[in-house]
Amino acid sequence: MINLLIKYLRKMTLGRLFLIPHTSFWFKRQEKLLYVFRQEIFGAFIAGLCISILFAACTPNNSANPTATSATNATDTKSSVVRFGYQKSAILLKSKGVLETRLKPEGVSVQWIEFPAGPQLLEAMNVGSIDFGHTGESPPIFAQAAGASLTYIAGIAPSPAGEAILVPQNSPIKTLADLKGKKIVFQKGSSAHYFVLQVLEKAGLKYSDILPISLPPADARAAFVKGNIDAWSIWDPFYADAEKNTNARVLVDGKNINKQGGYYLATRKFANENPQTVKAILEEIKKLENWSDKNREAVAEALAPVLKIDLEVLKKATFRKSFGVVPINQGLINEQQKVADTFYDLKLIPKKIDVKDAMLKPEQYAALSPS
């Protein structure tokens, strides 16, 4: 096991950036909740990669489990399984079983792996634990800066009303300018992180004017409820749940601020070797998105028991969500480059990146486009 771990680490080109002390920040939830990170966020992302690599190295060989391996047959390189990373916001795709129905006749099964947020999902993709997944706009930037071999497959329609910064009802924070000097919690490297940057820019504040605290959604909620932080940047359905079940007031939401959606991503190897499977996935996602847009009540009713969230909460989140798959085009590339440049200018990633390096060729996108 140790030899395998060493082999993985030697293959990485960013050895000097493996900041091992940060690993406790990701996994030891008993650490002080109000740990204020001033160090570069990139270090925390790399630390997450180390843990993911350790997990992968310590996992038994999956070859004996046909649902947990990415096998190839003797005549081509098509994978017999798609390992799909998802977050709660896309659990309908899993619960409906549309991918299994579509891919089974082609001899392809689907393995679902849940993640609390996009950064963790892309850590898993980087070490080869998943093939396909979706995140907000920010995680791919940090992953690309860390040297991850991933590629953008399609865009997700933006839902600006589904993201907000919350404060307690009795908070003295009344305007965006009041955020100066305050503790704001969010999942670092996520869409909530970029939303904070957008809000600060609108308020005329700098990133150094706030005290950023990074926690995954569940822990951030606990900190918010206990009054240990001043504000919380979060997305649906966590946002809708907090509105109903915590003492929360919306300071600002993404309307008129956030123009970005998210992305479906895959490892470059998977995208190159399985174009027909990728196209089939996108076609099923598109059909489900179109159905969801016209059946929002049914979407909420289907999600409530699966997520164990109150039906009225799911209705609120569903009715302010935008549904749709967006083709990768120059407009999306320009918007994503702006995100990358923003994080670089704040020294939150160590180098300037060109998002086009993580894109497929135009003819590939044309071939993958849903019918």
Q: Main traits of this protein?
A:
371 residues, alpha/beta, D-Maltodextrin-Binding Protein, domain 2, six-stranded mixed beta sheet, five-stranded mixed beta sheet, 16 helices, 11 strands, 44% helix, globular, disordered N terminus
Can you characterise this structure?
The structure is a single chain. The protein is α/β, with parallel strands linked by helices. It has 2 domains: 2-158 and 261-306 and 322-368, Periplasmic binding protein-like II (D-Maltodextrin-Binding Protein, domain 2), CATH 3.40.190.10; 160-253, Periplasmic binding protein-like II (D-Maltodextrin-Binding Protein, domain 2, 3-Layer(aba) Sandwich), CATH 3.40.190. 44% of the residues lie in helices and 15% in strands. The protein has 16 helices and 11 strands. The chain is globular and about 60 Å long.
Offer a concise description of the structure.
It contains 16 helices and 11 strands.
Helices and strands, in N-to-C order? HHHEHHEHEHEEEHEHEHEEHHHHEHH
Main β-sheet, in a few words?
6 strands, mixed
Oligomer: single chain
CATH topology term of the largest domain: D-Maltodextrin-Binding Protein, domain 2
Average pLDDT figure: 83
Number of alpha- plus pi-helical segments: 16
The end-to-end distance, rounded to whole angstroms, is: 45 Å
Q: Roughly what fraction of the amino acids lie in strands?
A: 5-15%
Mind telling me the CATH class of the largest domain?
Alpha Beta
Fourth CATH level, the homologous superfamily of the largest domain: Periplasmic binding protein-like II
Give Rg in angstroms.
Answer: 20 Å
Which spans have pLDDT < 50 for at least 5 consecutive residues? 1-76
Number of strands: 11
- Structurally, the number of domains stands at 2
Q: Name the overall outline.
A: globular
The CATH architecture of the largest domain is 3-Layer(aba) Sandwich
**How are strands sequenced across the largest beta sheet?**
2-1-3-10-4-11
Q: How much helicity do the residues have?
A: 40-55%
Alpha-beta content class:
alpha/beta
